[in-house]
Amino acid sequence: MCTNKIRGFTLVEILVAASVFSLFFMGVFNLYRMGTNMFVTGSWKLHKQKEAERFLSQLRERLEQAAPASVVTDAEVAESTIHIYTLANNTSVTEPAADTRLILFSVCKPAINNATTNTEGLLMPHILKMRKSTTNELSTLTLEGNTTIDFPGINGDFLNELNAGQALGSQDANPEDYGLGSENSFFTKLTEVTSVTIFWGAASGTIDAASDSPSGQTLGIGVTMRNPKHPETQLTQTIYARINDAAPLITRSANDL
């Protein structure tokens, strides 16, 4: 009599096969997770780079229009200096515990009142500030401008200069007349900021830390952002704004801005 014996897998064989499959699927999962993380961090960097470029471009454009308040008539050109107030050269502000002002400046356009032209000038103060987040240690960098001098708590010297400029008269133009937007106020922001560095250097962009005077130089702003979900992922963007010699820099501590 012939009998067929069916031989199954031993327990050892099953355990070995399960281990091999587990290692295989673990490797596939790790590759998937790695690819997902690379995509997420890459997408964050691309989005944040575009956001930072847009913000810093607007900041540079307005900084380069900082000038004294002025009124031009047939008889004279009356000017009132409005300085750019900022932090000392090579100062970094990292994850501040409270809102911190970084730069105070005013975009000014001359009023022309003579025999052939009668145009209103413009005086529009701006504040660059790091606003502390309420949810994490990161900050939001804001740039705010307003044709109304209404910035509670700002530096008294800057406020006095703004009032002196207004006293010249004819400073009530609409920002739209000078391509500065259709509203009397301006606001833009950059989120997930971990640190900002302020520095000034020669007009070529070369830093001249030994210089005692910032006149005739550029004002540099370096901004570092960090991904809140992947703290090891950071991005730094920097701009240089050429400063008008008629609106020179004055450096102060953060508490004095």
Beta content: 35-45%
Q: Sheet bearing the most strands, described? A: 9 strands, mixed
On the 0-100 scale, what is the average pLDDT? 82
How many domains, as an integer? 1
Quaternary arrangement of the chains shown?
single chain
> Poorly predicted ranges (pLDDT <50, ≥5 residues)?
205-214
Provide the structure class.
Answer: alpha+beta
Count helical runs.
2
Rg, please? Answer: 29 Å
Q: Spell the H/E element sequence.
A: HEEEEEEEEEHEEEE
Q: Distance between termini?
A: 105 Å
Gross geometry: elongated
Q: Could you estimate the helical fraction of the residues in percent?
A: 25-40%
**Strand count:** 13
Structure in words:
This protein has helices at 11-63, 156-167, and strands spanning 69-73, 77-80, 84-86, 91-94, 100-109, 111-113, 118-119, 122-132, 139-146, 185-202, 217-226, 234-242, 249-251. The protein is an alpha+beta fold. It has one domain. Strands 3, 4, 5, 8, 9, 10, 11, 12 and 13 form a nine-stranded mixed β-sheet that branches. It has a four-stranded mixed β-sheet with strand order 2-1-6-7.
Question: Secondary structure elements and their pairing?
Answer:
Blueprint: H1 11-63, E1 69-73, E2 77-80, E3 84-86, E4 91-94, E5 100-109, E6 111-113, E7 118-119, E8 122-132, E9 139-146, H2 156-167, E10 185-202, E11 217-226, E12 234-242, E13 249-251
Parallel strand pairs: 1-6, 3-13
Antiparallel strand pairs: 1-2, 3-5, 4-10, 5-8, 6-7, 8-9, 9-10, 10-11, 11-12
